[in-house]
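Bug #77: duplicate submission created two jobs. Keeping one. Sequence:
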Amino acid sequence: MNELLEKYIGYIAEVRKLSSNTVESYGRDIRQYIEYIRGKNISSLKNTNKTTVITYLLYLQKNGRATSTISRNLASIRAFYQYMASERIIDKDPTVDLESPRVEKRLPVILTNKEVEMLLEQPDCSDAKGTRDKSMLELLYATGIRVSELVALDLNDINMELGYIKCSKSNEKERIIPVGTIALEIMERYINRVRPGLVSDKSEKALYVNYKGERLTRQGFWKIIKGYKNKANINKAITPHTLRHSFAAHLLQNGADLKSVQEMLGHSDISTTQIYTQITKNRIKEVYNKAHPRA
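Kept job's structure:
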């Protein structure tokens, strides 16, 4: 079973070109499923059926797994069975017509305009670290790009003259995103005055680097934003994705059309973007309830 899983992982990584995070997630979920069926003395995936899968999902539920986690596990297992069926390794896919548990969509946490200002004011631009951090935070809020896209940016992805950045991933079409004046100004200062002192290897392409002169990681940025969140005394569970959520919600609150926001965020399905309209509706209702004398 492990050999079959490794073959499948190679397929989704090399043929389907899924992201490394997705490949890792699929592999982890399926390995846990294989361990479970081995514990039930099932020696081959050919001997599993719909009941096997349902029993496993109930097992996850009994062990306190969230509905979203169970739903993700089923998606991983389903994709694995579909692959085996297409390769004629199994005769029938036991996950056919098996419904995923309904996951309650939670509205993402967004910052108010004041909280964004508080967060962006925290870096001390009198030193190299503060200038770099200020540039990253301003760029995230100005463009709504993902943190993975932020740390993947190279110098040649920036067009200072025309005021845009270029984001591209192997499994997504290239996006051209405009950048505001403030974010461009601090980025120019970082590139011209700070970055040269951090980079020892002149062939380094990464836009944002750490003190070793190497590309900054997602984990490194997570520590940075967590530190500034605490420094600003913001009592919200901020993640690196929070500025992306705030970017989208604030654009819609100020009259941007949904399609444009979808394109800037890089959402393939507009229904993903529509969750931010719910946030703006909630905000309007909140303002109404506070301001209207008969609310």
